[in-house]
Amino acid sequence: MTLPLPVIDLAFDRSHIWHPYTSLADPLPVYPVTGARGVYLELADGRRLVDGMSSWWAAIHGYNHPVLNQAVTTQLERMSHVMFGGLTHEPAITLAEQLAELTPEPLQKVFFSDSGSVSVEVAIKMAIQYWATLGETRKTRLLTVRSGYHGDTFAAMSVSDPVTGMHRLFSGVLQRQIFAESPSCAFHDPWNEECIGDLRRKLERHADEIAAVIIEPVVQGAGGMRFYAPRYLGRLRELCDEFGVLLIFDEIATGFGRSGKLFALEHAEVSPDILCVGKALTGGYMTLAATLTTGVVAETISSGNPGLFMHGPTFMANPLACAVAAANIRLLLSYDWKSKVAGIERGLESALSPCRTMEGVVDVRVLGAIGVVELENPVEMGLIQKKFVDRGVWVRPFGRLVYLMPPYIITDEELGLLADAVTEVVYETLAESR
């Protein structure tokens, strides 16, 4: 059955709807989508765009996937939602079992929430309550590195980069956290201990007030799309143990294969005390996140006063979201996703390499299904977005970064179209700026 096309009132949208990271007074153009299938977004004017963003890194299997559609349909016939306080259900139990099995063995306790940013809030609350239960009431601050990004809610903003990040306006009202220099060792660089020297010095100086270190393992996402040496994580784990602080990994962007490993922490074979996952967890179908922790952390929190973890999102462990997340994980593990991601990595490396010789390009870097072209100067979003749409692709840069995170199901031809569009648009944009 062919569904009728929806009527999209762009004038109302422009006047009343506030889109993310834009001005309501002078909003950026938006492109009306009427459908999505496979790796394609279908626009109201009939154009089809190859999606290079996986809808902000979430739709790893593309759109309208029959397996995931069926999981939602089946669950919807049973129930769409019930509160998680005092009740439980099979989709939540199944998903928790999968997460506990796939993540490092110590991470056996699963707390569900409704977005990645909230999962970070939960992790921070866990870390602070853990130490408070042990009588260490001074340990309330977080240590992190610059060029990081952990979300747009308040505690998450406080541990995102305070200078290059998006939240400078709120610096006076956010909790003052401790920032070390970002890892200076690139992914393939030989290890240099000074790469983590500043963080070590911060731990030496402030360990008695630090509850946890929070970091995005191996890949720093929206704070700069930087890839750093896995050995950094191994040393970080050792330092956290040495100075008596917890370690939180934020795998919201990197989880479920994006970096070439199921979780980016596997590049270093390191386990944190607390792990945040989200985004690709449901394959981009709906919002869901989880914070996993160890038995030690959970049991310590549960042993003190009040002995409860006081957090409970209304849509925590939503059955629809849990059902599609469980199906998404089964789907990912049902095929050789590592080979698919490795193929994307090779394709991006080859197709984006011409950008390295362009004047105005600082760096080109690729890891797993992530490709980044870093420019000397920020792009003008409205103009560059139109250039991409006119070439039949959906790419949404930010700042100085033009990047790709395509769905894993993308074909070589579709990937070539995406990467060639990036090369052409970057060249054209740089030429126009001279």
Q: Would you kindly provide a brief summary of this structure?
A:
It is built from 13 helices and 16 strands. The chain is of the alpha/beta class and 434 residues long. α11 packs parallel to α13.
Keyphrases for this structure?
single chain; seven-stranded mixed β-sheet; aminotransferase; alpha/beta; 434 residues; transferase; chlorophyll biosynthesis; four-stranded mixed β-sheet; 2 domains; cytoplasm; Aspartate Aminotransferase, domain 2; Aspartate Aminotransferase, domain 1; 36% helix; 13 helices; 16 strands
- Helical stretch tally: 13
Average of the residue pLDDT scores? 96
Count of distinct strands: 16
CATH second-level architecture of the largest domain: 3-Layer(aba) Sandwich
Major β-sheet strand ordering: 4-12-11-10-7-5-6
Estimated share of beta-strand residues: 15-25%
- Cα-atom radius of gyration: 22 Å
Helix/sheet category: alpha/beta
In the predicted model, the low-confidence regions spanning at least 5 consecutive residues are none
Q: How many separate structural domains?
A: 2
Describe the structure.
With 434 residues, the protein is α/β, with parallel strands linked by helices. The chain folds into two domains: 153 residues, Alpha-Beta Complex (Aspartate Aminotransferase, domain 1), CATH 3.90.1150; 265 residues, Aspartate Aminotransferase, domain 2 (3-Layer(aba) Sandwich), CATH 3.40.640.10. The protein contains 13 helices and 16 strands. The strands form four sheets. It has a seven-stranded mixed sheet with strand order 4-12-11-10-7-5-6, with helices on both faces. A four-stranded mixed sheet has the order 1-2-3-15. It has a three-stranded antiparallel sheet with strand order 13-14-16, with helices on one face. β5, α6 and β6 form a beta-alpha-beta unit. The longest helix has 22 residues.
